[in-house]
From TrEMBL:
Its main location: cytoplasm. The reaction proceeds by a bi uni uni bi ping pong mechanism. The active site is at residue 37. The keyword Lyase does not apply. This is Pantothenate synthetase.
Length: 276
């Protein structure tokens, strides 16, 4: 596996692949890699001849009071895991490489950014869209793989790629969960043992609400019951909603996607699942 930290070296490496006619897949990450990220790398390997995984904690997608400086950074372990997973290039730009002095261009996606994570984290999707557009351009990938863990992000990326006619395919990968159902996340390490034990109540409550809806319960009362149960158990539910899968517009028609964000101790947990 090549470890690349500057743009000329990345261009040279991808040029060789392109000349050989190889299909290139990109897996964008912020590092602190876990089995969810590695499943994306494996999916990328099945999709393409060569896999580039980027590790970049993107300052542009963090708000001023968010955890940019405290976001976990585990480069050595990440590189070992990527090598073992069969990644060909680890792309690790610095902030200066990604945003040289004078950088003044951002990508603003409307539509699916407008509620939920977009409302809770102003500017977040501007940062995500900008860095992903740059990563697509830097790597000239033929396909990029994203986790359904960040459902709204996946829809924002699909919207941007369609709107800007970007020449790559976007592949979504199902959520990888721990044995108790909690979606894997780099931030789960900040849960105390007691909080970690409780955290699986989020997907459980969502699954119960989904089942109730499928058995004819009114959408709002099923969502209310899930919210109330979680809040009573010590979660602080930010949103728990049923939305159209692609537009993220609230809906009460099935099939749909249930999406949720809830704070538990220091961690904001995200989850989502199909309903119907
Ligand atoms: P992150 O490093 O958290 O920004 O995530 C990088 C990519 O990994 C994104 O496409 C995420 O959606 C995806 N990802 C993170 N956690 C999971 C998970 N548990 N299952 C599947 N994909 C995931």
């Amino acid at each position: 596996m090549r470890i690349v930290r500057d743009l000329p070296a990345l261009r040279a490496a991808t040029e060789t692949m392109r000349r050989a006619g190889e299909r290139v897949a990109l897996v964008p990450t912020m590092g602190a890699l876990h089995a969810g990220h590695l499943a994306l790398v494996e999916a990328a390997r099945r999709e393409a001849d060569r896999v580039i995984t980027s590790i970049f904690v993107n300052p542009l997608q963090f708000g001023p009071n968010e955890d940019f400086s405290k976001y976990p950074r585990t480069e050595e372990a990440d590189l070992a895991a990527l090598e073992a997973a069969g990644c060909d290039i680890a792309w690790l730009p610095t902030v200066e490489v990604m945003y040289p002095p004078g950088a003044a261009t951002v990508i603003e996606v409307a539509g699916p950014t407008e509620g939920f994570e977009g409302a809770a984290r102003p500017g977040h999707f501007r940062g995500v869209a900008t860095v992903c557009c740059k990563l697509f351009s830097q790597t000239e990938a033929d396909v990029a793989v994203f986790g359904e863990k960040d459902w709204q992000q996946l829809q924002v990326i699909r919207r941007m790629v369609a709107d800007l006619d970007l020449p790559l395919d976007i592949l979504g990968h199902p959520i990888v969960r721990d044995a108790d159902g909690l979606a894997l996340s780099s931030r789960n390490r900040y849960l105390s043992p007691a909080e970690r034990a409780k955290a699986a109540m989020l997907p459980e409550a969502m699954r119960e609400a989904a089942n109730a809806m499928l058995h004819g319960a009114a959408i709002e009362s099923a969502l209310d019951a899930a919210r109330d149960g979680l809040n009573a158990a010590g979660f602080d539910v930010n949103y728990l909603a049923l939305v159209e899968p692609e537009t993220l517009r609230p809906t009460d028609a099935l099939p749909a996607r249930m999406i949720a964000a809830a704070k538990l101790g220091p961690v904001r947990l995200l989850d989502n699942m199909p309903v119907g």
